Amino acid sequence: MRRSKRLVLLSKFLSENPNRIFTLKYFGDKYDAAKSSISEDLNIIKDAFHEAGEGTLETIPGAAGGVRFRIKRPAQAIEKFVLELSSILSDRSRIIPGGYLYMTDVIFSPEYSSKIGEIFAQLFVDEEPTCVLTVETKGIPLALMTARALGVPLVVARRDSRVTEGPSVNISYISGSSRRIQNMALPTRALSEKARVLIVDDFMKGGGTARGMSELVREFRAEVVGVAVLVATAYPEEKLVKNYTSLLVLEKIDAERGEVRLKPVKIPIKKEGV
Amino acid sequence: MRRSKRLVLLSKFLSENPNRIFTLKYFGDKYDAAKSSISEDLNIIKDAFHEAGEGTLETIPGAAGGVRFRIKRPAQAIEKFVLELSSILSDRSRIIPGGYLYMTDVIFSPEYSSKIGEIFAQLFVDEEPTCVLTVETKGIPLALMTARALGVPLVVARRDSRVTEGPSVNISYISGSSRRIQNMALPTRALSEKARVLIVDDFMKGGGTARGMSELVREFRAEVVGVAVLVATAYPEEKLVKNYTSLLVLEKIDAERGEVRLKPVKIPIKKEGV
């Protein structure tokens, strides 16, 4: 196979399998080429991805080593995207009577959810999550795309335990905003001990749901390595979880006056970015 | 920018944006190259994608024309994947007391859900769906990945109308298997008139849920262009929807004896495939 064709197929493969390690031998067999040729291909791809701000191609030494593509966008590109999101979501037509913000089309869009998932993955990849957890329903697309970008499985807690999923761990928790008792259930086989769990959701008000998920994780003797949400409300300032990252803060929503104010959060990415 | 770098970035971009049309001018501006160079790049990519069975790069003539990457895997590759799925899901440890099959880990896995979504997209792309519809919860990952592969939005019906999503259309329907009355709701702003809707779900027994979704679509004066499910049960043979496509048929599940039998469905793809 000629170099140009290998470059095309390798680039496609790597971009579809982020954060996973592949050996040169694997690619050599796959594309019927010498390891030295693959190595040269990967150098070209590495430079192209790096220069375009797509991410890095890392070489992992050792017996379990190989190459790994990591999505790493420059801070400016992320800021620009979050600003665009902020502007889209600030449209007055999105205000729902009762003071809610209609975000469903954005978080269910494959285009936006994959970009948001890639940002969450980039922010938490160094914590080495082994799975992503959310609770049904609206967090699922963001959580799935985050899991995809991290190359790890997605686990979804349900509001009730389901007969179709076998034995489960169930917890009750107090919703931070409505102060009502809520339930959450996860099949016992869904999460393993010592899992490193990244919690993802679309929206946080009081933080009760995220805290509920944390408690659920603890019941499995697993560990929460981060909490990522798309939008957090400015009030209450004190959330029921200590550490979380949101891309946007909802500072104000007034259905009467038709006002909504969202603020992009300063994303904690080193400025050198790439 | 040198050709090799353009090939890398173009391949990544196209594979991330399937089924969408881009002009040569768009790429020329993006990669700072003459249209003639871009055209040569695209020919190389087209051949590589075609030979590797990844898909086709089509040239759309006319004012709204450009190039479009379509995922088109050869029939054998799809059959092999469905066979692998069948074998994974036939594991006895997946039998849940009550005669259910535990599939959650597979349908929530980014790797499997994206491959299944790509197959659904390939099977229905010629129907030109303008959106993908599912109902919460377990169908969401497959539906999202199908929408991604088609380059169209995802719409998710809820079991109850939500105050946070504004006015909605609500329907009641009879579940085909349990014969119970169920509810389904979709915000009025979620689906437009004349939408061409591909319905996606993980599992079909009686077909009541798919029929409910079809009725919901009709309330919006939109049109159902297809119904795709991962697994359909062999019994009841008569489903409440006439036309549907499933990748697998669940012929038997017996919790007492620890038996489960799944059969891959002959996929209706022309044998020449690519």
TrEMBL record, chains A, B:
Phosphoribosyltransferase domain boundaries: 114-249
The entry's keywords: DNA-binding, Transcription, Transcription regulation
Annotated GO biological process: negative regulation of DNA-templated transcription; negative regulation of purine nucleobase metabolic process
Residues spanning the signal sequence: none
Keyword Protein transport: no
One MF term in the entry's GO annotations: DNA binding
Keyword Transcription regulation in record: yes
InterPro entries noted in UniProt: PRTase-like, PRTase_dom, Pur/Pyrimidine_PRTase, PuR_N, PurR_Bsub, WH-like_DNA-bd_sf, WH_DNA-bd_sf
Domain Bacterial purine repressor N-terminal: 2-69
Family under the similarity heading: Belongs to the purine/pyrimidine phosphoribosyltransferase family. PurR subfamily.
NCBIfam families, per database record: purR_Bsub (TIGR01743)
Complexes and interactors: Homodimer.
Name of this chain's protein: Pur operon repressor
Organism the protein comes from: Thermosediminibacter oceani (strain ATCC BAA-1034 / DSM 16646 / JW/IW-1228P)
